[in-house]
Every structure is written in structure tokens, then in C-alpha cells.
Amino acid sequence: MFAPLAFVTMAMALVSATEPSRLQKRQNAQVVTNCVKPNTVALTFDDGPWIYLQDISNTLKAANATGTFFFNGNNWGCIYDQDMSARVQYAYKNGHQIASHTWSHADLTTLSWDNIHNEMWLVEQALTRIAGVTPAFMRPPYGNYNDLVLQASYIRKQVVTIWDFDDGDSTGASAAQSESDYDALVRSHPGTVLSLNHETQETTAHQVLPYAIQKLKAAGYQLVSLADCTGLPAYQFVGSPQTRTSDWHC
């Protein structure tokens, strides 16, 4: 006996809402590894919001530069804490781009379909609440992604973002080593640069960033947001910050 049409339709809907099956081919999200607008540099900062954000923002603004901050929800601290939320708002109000670095900085390639979505959704929700914007860019922790991550990102309308220059600040490089790497980068003078930095590193905020800005600007680069250097929208939604409620917690 054949199953009723209504039952079949319901079963198909349940399959489409869960982990991709062999019966369904999902589209992968776009992956960005470099800028496309000539002579631009996108300075991006991972793992915040953290205590050096305001200094980084002020240094960028003083140089007429725009940065891009990839925020976690609950990594170095809880994004809903008053001081952390204030940092998110500070970056956004000062003209910088804010984006997703997922909720807890987990390696997404080790997670299930549902947990990948949860890592993305929780920080998207937090940024929408705190700053009034839903990001259109997501950087997977450690730069790790697989087909499930790309398929989830496509559904969530997120551009997966990697980099083409790493200053090494999160893997033990000294300030002098990072500065030397920027020197070598400027000497090679690529057409564009998408730079990975971490706002949780004091030396990045107070030594390496001012040095890099000086060198890059002297070489004729424009220091712009990731959206500007790729020609893609920064946000899926732009509205107003929401009023804090009791469920703003980690």
C-alpha cells in the first residue's frame, strides 16, 4: 500500500530540515580568501570583543582606516556582558565592519549539522541584538571548514572568509617577527591583502598594528573593510540595537 501523499510530503520536509542526505544536494557558500579591489588591504581581527578593541579602533580611525572584527559569542568572555557588548557597539558605531567568528570558537569540522548551525546562529543573534545588524561574513575558527560548514553557511547566507596573510600573533610570533612579516609583505607588494590579526593580543594592538598601518599606507594601500575590498554586502540586515532582556546571557 502506498503512503498517503500528505505523509510523504511531511517526511520530505523533515529530511530537508535536517542534515543533508544523499537524496539532496545542497549548495556551498562562497569562500573568500583575498580582496578583489586593487590596492586595498583588509585588516581583520579575530576572537574578540576584548579589552584592546577600543585601542585598535582608535588607531585605525586616526589613520583613516577601517577594520573588520570577527566576534565570538563566548570565547575569551561572554558577548552579553555589559563591557563586552559595549565593545561590539563601539566598533560598529566607529564605522568598522563586524562579523561572525561563531559562538564558542569550536572547530566546526568536528561538529554535527545541528551544532554547526547553533554555533553560527547564536552569535548572529547576539550581534543583531547588541548592534542591530546581522553579519554576512563568517570566519570559521582555525580557518577550518568542510562541505557541511559550507552548506550551512549557504543556508545562513554567510560568506566564508579566510585570509592570504597571517601575522602569526596567535601562534607565538613576537611583535618583531610580525613586523618583519609585514615588511616582507610590503616588499613583495601584492595587488591586495586580506590580513589575519587577533584583537586579543596586546602586542598586536599597541605595537604591530601601528607599525603595519604606517608601512601599508606608505606603500600606497587603502585600508578598508572586508566588504569594501570584496565588493560584497557587509550585512544581511541593518536595524537598531535591541533593549537588553533577561535572556541576554551565555
TrEMBL record:
The keyword Lipoprotein applies. GO terms for biological process: carbohydrate metabolic process; cell wall organization. SUPFAM superfamilies: Glycoside hydrolase/deacetylase. It comes from the Eukaryota. Residues 39-224 form the NodB homology domain. Keywords: Carbohydrate metabolism, Cell membrane, Cell wall biogenesis/degradation, Glycoprotein, GPI-anchor, Hydrolase, Lipoprotein, Membrane, Metal-binding, Signal. It is found in: Cell membrane. GO terms for cellular component: plasma membrane; side of membrane. Pfam families: Polysacc_deac_1. InterPro entries: Glyco_hydro/deAcase_b/a-brl, NODB_dom. GO terms for molecular function: hydrolase activity, acting on carbon-nitrogen (but not peptide) bonds; metal ion binding. Residues 1-17 form the signal peptide. Its cofactor is Co(2+). It is a lipid-anchor; GPI-anchor. This is Carbohydrate esterase family 4 protein. It comes from Crepidotus variabilis. The lineage of its organism: Eukaryota, Fungi, Dikarya, Basidiomycota, Agaricomycotina.
